[in-house]
Description:
The structure holds 2 protein chains of 2 kinds.
Chain A: H1 3-21, H2 23-49, E1 51-52, E2 55-56, H3 57-88, H4 92-95, H5 101-130, H6 138-162, H7 166-182, H8 197-201, H9 205-218, H10 225-249
Antiparallel strand pairs in A: 1-2
Helix pairs in contact in A: 1-5, 2-3, 2-5, 3-5, 3-6, 3-7, 3-9, 5-6, 5-10, 6-9, 6-10, 9-10
Chain B: E1 2-12, E2 18-28, E3 32-36, H1 43-51, E4 58-63, E5 66-67, H2 73-77, E6 79-82, H3 94-104, H4 109-122, H5 138-150, E7 156-160, H6 168-183, E8 187-192, H7 195-201, E9 204-209, E10 212-217, H8 219-225, H9 231-244
Parallel strand pairs in B: 3-8, 3-9, 6-7, 7-8
Antiparallel strand pairs in B: 1-2, 1-4, 4-5, 9-10
Helix pairs in contact in B: 3-4, 3-5, 8-9
Amino acid sequence: MTASQIRFFALVRREVNRFFKIKRQTLGAPLLETFLYISVFGAALGTRIDTLQGVDYVVFIIPGLILMAWAINAFSNNSSSILQQKFQRAIDDQLSSPASPMQLLLAFSLGGFLRGMIVATLTFIASSILVGIPVENVHVLLPALFLVGFFFSQLGVLVGVRAEQFDDVSFAQTFVLQPLIFLGGVFYSASLLPEPFQTLTHFDPVYYMISLVRYGFLGISEVNVPLSLLVLTLATLTLFMVNHRLFVRGYKLRA
Amino acid sequence: MRALDITDLVKRYPTGTEALRGISLSIETGEFFGLLGPNGAGKSTLIHCSTGLAQPTAGSIEIFGNDAIDHYEEARLAVGLAPQDLNLDWFLTAEETLDYHGGYFGMPKRERRERTKELLDAFSLTEKRNDRTRTLSGGMKRRLILARALMHRPRLLILDEPTAGVDVELRLELWRYVQQINDEGTTILLTTHYLEEAERLCDRIAFIYDGQIVAQGTSQELASEFGAASLEDAYLELVGRMELSRAKPEEIAP
């Protein structure tokens, strides 16, 4: 390995090591939360709803839960990790190393991305065993999930870099991210909503992400799949470029 | 070759505060150089600009002939920083702290393992190697920070007030460490406001005040320049004059 590769690998290892050291909080709690959603909404409420768009309700909600697990874990990991390190000034060890802004950004991004992927994969495996979940369009599912994971990783980095106190991170997660995800149609189909809520849902970007992932798993979609993938790709790239610019400038990282 | 060569360095914060006002400073290879000044004089800002933790507004910084601002990779490889704050990562053990730092500087695994063992032994931290850093005592944290700065075998070691707030025993221990490191060939830049520390350790000393280098030389040269009996008297004389004439420090040279 070259020195640059060793450096990048060490930066990523640090991020992964962090969430494994507090795995009850970073992996256990999100898994439990997801299973509670499946139990409460799927098993309990699902007995009353029966089917949605031709599939069992519990199966209908699982793609959204997998997306939610990946998105929230990617976001919260990166925002918390960066803010904690800024707070302790431990981040100075990485910032004063020869690592480039690109290496730093990618390493911070991958921490949350991998944590989200682990939680989402475990959720998928358990769901497959418990209720059996199909994968109808893997060629859409994989890019959609990877893009969603990377998008929320970038969002976490952005909020972590900008944040000056822990309240800033929890505000973004509680008052922005979670409402967008919940109202994006994790637990229902937007087509069931009365107006104006049905139209308003179309302004929620997470609605398109959930629809893509649901199409990947179940083969049903309420949106234009190629267009949604394209827009998601562009949005993720834009966010990545914004973050890269911030890392080059050292915005709220270097004095 | 000069270990550190700073020319016309300016650091202006977005608030408009000018922390460094055109500083020029050179440190020769192998030197033990002291930077003395009161709080807020610009010592830490100068160090942060040299190590990439702050972005200079103007001027140039070269470390062993390599640009430290734009094409910084070689320059940063040559520098080890022991900051004033105990900025250890709470999630890591003492051993991991050194291992990751070595990784950030591109050291291969075997070299990291050997160097980590060597430093843990040298700084009497072997027994605590698996303890998380937040559980270490203040003295141990201070030693670990110095060990971390040395992990990648820097040619220039920057110590930002390494003995601030430590007890006398640890201070003497740290002095022994850094003196030995310097004797082995590492160039050292030490910032402190302990005059005794600077006088005892440093080959040359610069006084920094209000973002400017206002005097430099050996402690004897500084004392004689200010017509004082000791470095302490010279420093007090200088600070007294500066306080009387804050606006135009260039006008009060002896």
